[in-house]
Design a protein that fits this description.
The chain is 86% helix and 0% strand. The protein is an all-alpha fold. It has 2 domains: 1-30 and 249-468, no CATH class; 37-223, no CATH class. Helix 3 packs across helix 9 (212-222), helix 10 (225-246) runs antiparallel to helix 11 and helix 12 runs antiparallel to helix 13 (331-357). The protein is globular and about 60 Å long.
Length: 479
């Protein structure tokens, strides 16, 4: 398949996956002022801390089967064998999720004391583990849509999930004034409902079949991903734990608003990340895969850097729009968190080469070193700089992780990445943000600096001749 056709295929599925994600994140951001009216900064910080804990446990229990499921499914051509892969993954996920739920219910009190120094959040811990159970099982069923490249059905399930979630959250938080527990219960009620519908929809594919030999092979393939995935989750979420211990839940709540704004970029990367493994592994020819991977990195970084530029420059006005005055400090963390997301997107692209080469065993060394760097920087930077220190610790860790994984990927599956263009895309974005912040520009100038990004790239020679010709054809057709 031609390179342009491959890129269009990836873009198509990413865009369709992104519809559900965009609606979900757009509604979540638009509803933030409503939620924050009913929640204090401390309440919001408590919720974020439990979300961080749930995500790390999810990653620990889910990542081995999650990664092996995609690889094994595309390596199999026999439909009966694929059915065994689906059922084995389904039941292993169910058992792991149920074990986590039982453990969370039994250990709710010590978890509450360990995180918050009090027993008053025991019920919040319990409902957070119920949400973890629902999310793990929902994720496995929706993964079937991804391997089948049925992105429209995936997006419909995501949309139904978010609409139910928002409705239940508003009912519990606004109407019944249930505070943080209403937010958590509301967030997993939609997931649980859609999971039940998908269970009925997939009933002919599922069944009481579990292949232990297959499970051991899947676990052997996927387990090397686990330490890396846990380290990645730790980089993404342990700043909340350091902040809650060193500064308090109020700071975590303010920090969380900055994260929500940067999540506009995370949405774009989320859509790409859903489409990327199935797309990347489906390219059978290694030379074609290498050329495609090289262009994908360039486009992901350039698009991500453009969004990061806009979010960084507009952050003061976005925070004013979404949060009450006590959340205003959140604007200081939007820029580093947005560029951290760009580094993560680049990491997602390059790490697929290692999976393709089946050389994942030492991944944990790189991700573990990045996680350790993150811990050290959090300990050093949070006491004097608070939430800004946490944000720059996250950015530094993601940059280090991308650099290390790119180095390893090039050793096991060399790809002709376009490093000059990647560096130019990031450099222009950083320069525009730095200029806007140094000059303390107004809203109009901030918008202008964000919009001028692709023009500056074009003037500096970023575009290849074929890309310039394609753009001219599109513009001519638009006229």
């Amino acid at each position: 398949m031609a390179l342009s056709a491959q890129i269009r295929r990836l873009a198509k599925h990413s865009a369709i996956y992104g519809i559900g994600g965009f609606i979900q994140r757009a509604l979540a951001v638009l509803l933030l002022p409503l939620y924050l009216h009913y929640l204090s900064t401390s309440d919001y910080g408590t919720i974020e801390t439990l979300v961080a804990l749930s995500t790390i446990i999810f990653t620990l229990l889910r990542s081995a089967i999650q990664n092996s499921f995609f690889r094994f499914y595309f390596d199999a051509d026999d439909s009966a064998y694929r059915a065994r892969i689906v059922r084995t993954a389904f039941w292993s996920t169910m058992v792991a999720a149920t074990g986590a739920l039982i453990g969370g219910l039994l250990l709710a009190e010590p978890i509450s004391r360990g995180l918050f120094g009090t027993d008053e959040h025991v019920n919040l811990v319990r409902v957070a583990f119920l949400g973890l159970w629902a999310t793990m099982n929902y994720d496995q069923l929706t993964a079937l849509f991804r391997v089948e490249e049925r992105s429209v059905l995936f997006s419909l399930a995501s949309l139904a999930n978010v609409l139910l979630t928002i409705g239940m959250t508003i009912l519990l938080v606004v109407v019944y004034d249930q505070g943080p527990i209403g937010v958590i219960v509301g967030n997993f009620s939609g997931t649980l409902t859609v999971w039940a519908v998908l269970l009925a929809f997939r009933r002919f594919q599922l069944g009481l079949e579990f292949d232990r030999a297959l499970f051991r092979r899947m676990l052997a393939f996927g387990w090397p991903f686990v330490p890396s995935a846990v380290a990645l989750a730790a980089i993404d979420f342990n700043d909340r734990f350091f902040l809650v211990k060193m500064k308090g839940t109020d700071d975590v709540g303010v920090y969380a608003l900055g994260i929500r704004i940067a999540a506009v970029l995370v949405f774009f990367l989320w859509a790409f990340r859903l489409a990327w493994p199935a797309f990347a592994y489906s390219i059978k020819d290694d030379e074609e895969a290498k050329r495609t991977y090289g262009f994908v990195l360039t486009y992901v970084v350039a698009a991500g850097a453009w969004v990061a530029t806009g979010l960084s420059l507009l952050s003061p006005w976005l925070v004013q729009l979404l949060g009450p005055p006590e959340f205003q400090e959140a604007e200081r963390v939007v820029a580093p968190l947005s560029f951290a997301a760009v580094a993560f997107g680049a990491y997602v692209v390059v790490v697929i080469s290692i999976g393709r080469a089946r050389r994942m065993a030492s991944n944990f060394v790189i991700t573990g070193a990045a996680a350790l760097l993150n811990v050290i920087l959090n300990l050093v930077l949070i006491p004097p700089y608070g939430i800004r220190g946490a944000a720059f610790a996250t950015l530094s860790a993601y940059l280090a992780m991308f650099a290390g994984m790119a180095w390893k990927a090039q050793r096991v599956f060399p790809v002709p990445y376009q490093w000059r263009r990647v560096g130019l895309a990031v450099g222009v974005a950083v320069a525009l943000v730095a200029a806007g912040k140094a000059l303390d520009v107004n809203l109009v100038a901030a918008l202008a600096l964000g919009l001028v990004y692709p023009i500056v790239l074009a003037l500096l020679g970023f575009l290849l001749p074929a890309e310039r010709a394609r753009i001219r054809r599109v513009l001519a057709f638009a006229r």
